[in-house]
Amino acid sequence: MEIWQLTPWDELDMVIRLLISALVGGLIGYERERAEKPAGLRTIVLVSVGATLFTLASINGFGWSSDPSRVAAGIVVGIGFLGAGTILRGEGGVVGLTTAATIWSVAAIGLALGAGLYLMAVIAAIIVLGVLRLPAKHVS
After folding, report:
1. In a domain, 139, yes or no
2. Is the entire prediction scored with pTM above 0.85?
3. Cα-trace Rg, the chain
4. In total, how many domains does the chain have?
5. Terminal CA-to-CA distance of the chain, rounded, Å?
6. Which has the closest alpha carbon to 50: 85, 11, 12, 22?
7. What angle (nearest 5°) sits at the alpha carbon of residue 117, between those of residues 135 and 50?
């Protein structure tokens, strides 16, 4: 479907996907913010909404001759670089792995929402939130 052939219902569905992405990203980002992690509310929401928008644009914006899977692959690579920037090695060991994994997971959730996989995205978000709420093992 070409962009100029989108109906108001198609556009409303895309807006709903973006809003759900912002909500889910906000819930996960709020948890990270409360835990005082470097990637907090704003970062996580931006990653989620960005991945959703890239997915929506790749599916709906370039016509049937495009390959949305290429954009999905690009999201994975781009988020890998973003996540790598959050990992640090210090005297106490490596820190930031959970933050990087959270960014990666939220991008996947955003991508799923952009593709219309609502249930899968919401279940994944619940799993991510559950894992982030588990007590961390601290090494002294």
Report:
1. no
2. yes
3. 16
4. 1
5. 57
6. 22
7. 75
